[in-house]
Amino acid sequence: MKFIDLNIQQQRIRRSIEKRIQTVLDHGQYIMGPEIAELEAKLAGYVGVRHAIGCASGTDALLLALMAYGVKSGDAVFTTPFSFIATAEAIALLGATPVFVDIDSTTFNLDPGRLEAAIKAFTGNKPSAGTALPETSGATGLTAKGIIAVDLFGLAADYQAIAQVAEKYGLFVIEDAAQSFGADYYGKKSGGLADIGCTSFFPAKPLGGYGDGGMCFTDDDELADKMLSLRLHGQGEHRYDHVLVGINGRLDTLQAAVLLAKLEIFAEEIELRQQVAETYHELLAAEPSPVVPPRVPANYVSAWAQYSVLARDERSRTALRIRLEEAGVPTAIYYPKPLHLQPAFNYLRYARGDFPVSEDHAQRIFSLPMHPYLQKSEQEMLARVLLGG
Ligand SMILES: *Cc1c(COP(=O)(O)O)cnc(C)c1O
């Protein structure tokens, strides 16, 4: 059994991928070739926004979004400590300060109630129960600028509640949709749920290329213009006119070509993922179960980048993973260490205990194999191993 199987997908669309690559080899426009605009137009339509801006990775998408808002040293951006490092890394790379806010224990996403409490504590420079601030906050006069919410494992964060808080305090909202492309939230597509949405085409993501890639989505013309310029070294009127300090953040033509081929079956793959998740749920919801399966709230459709369950405790998780491994079932832990405890962020002086839900989940969570082509028989075998003993 494979954790993620990209070969089955390739077998289905190999000819289409080869044809797309062949076209690029023929026209030779490896940088900003016509496939970029074609992909941007198709994905903007899919997400339901005015602008899609292809870029080199999900990390660059976050960076471009923050740069479009002019985020810099002295600014603070609220985000979750239970994510891949890239989310907070993009904030820190610009010299701004990530201010972490703990997660909701069932969705694993930024908790809107805790978000408001954190913003209040930050503004008053007074940590309160359940909030913890980086050491640098009030003293050096940081300014709260925005929020990056993450749609962890493919499930959207609660953007209606987050937008209410953001509006109240005058903050922008960026959606880190790296894991959730293809997901729905109240009838709207992930990527279009905040002021700017950022996704990743890393091969293992729901819509993955054969290398790095990413995209920004927005309805805001001004922000779109900025991001278009920023991804091309801050280009202005012509190639050697630079109006902003930008980056080399382009998406490769070849990656866009691969993604266009994969897009043909993407909607169907999202459907298949629902079936796989449903089967897991039926198999694992049986009482008593050694794991708590993930729960998708009403009006949400997850893109199921991961199917993550919670074990009773760390020891139980280790035992279950060993048992599965011995039966040939690979598992993974996303994420074993919350971001506020990463050595890279030592300078923020967060401590163990600051974000108890994230810390607890880091010790209990693990992910089961998940891809559109997982067989029911494989899932049944997995469930027998997991539940038996
Ligand atoms: C994968 C991922 C990223 C970064 O995307 P890359 O394309 O690898 O740079 C950012 N945020 C989250 C939540 C991710 O899972």
Which secondary structure elements does this structure contain, and how are they paired or packed?
Blueprint: H1 6-27, H2 34-47, E1 51-55, H3 58-68, E2 75-79, H4 86-93, E3 97-100, H5 112-123, E4 143-150, H6 159-169, E5 172-176, E6 184-185, E7 188-189, E8 196-200, E9 214-218, H7 221-230, H8 253-263, H9 266-284, E10 291-292, E11 300-301, E12 307-311, H10 314-326, H11 356-364, E13 365-368, H12 376-387
Parallel strand pairs: 2-3, 2-4, 4-5, 5-8
Antiparallel strand pairs: 1-9, 6-7, 6-11, 8-9, 10-12, 12-13
Bound molecules: pyridoxal-5'-phosphate.
Per DSSP, the total helix count is 12
What is the averaged pLDDT score? 96
Largest sheet: 7 strands, mixed
Number of strands: 13
- Strand line-up across the major sheet: 1-9-8-5-4-2-3
Bound molecules: pyridoxal-5'-phosphate
Alpha-carbon distance between the two ends:
21 Å
- The helix content is 25-40%
Radius of gyration: 21 Å
Identify the overall geometry.
globular
- The poorly predicted ranges are none
Q: Give helix and strand order, one letter per element, not per position.
A: HHEHEHEHEHEEEEEHHHEEEHHEH
What percent of residues are in strands?
Answer: 5-15%
The computed structural class is alpha/beta
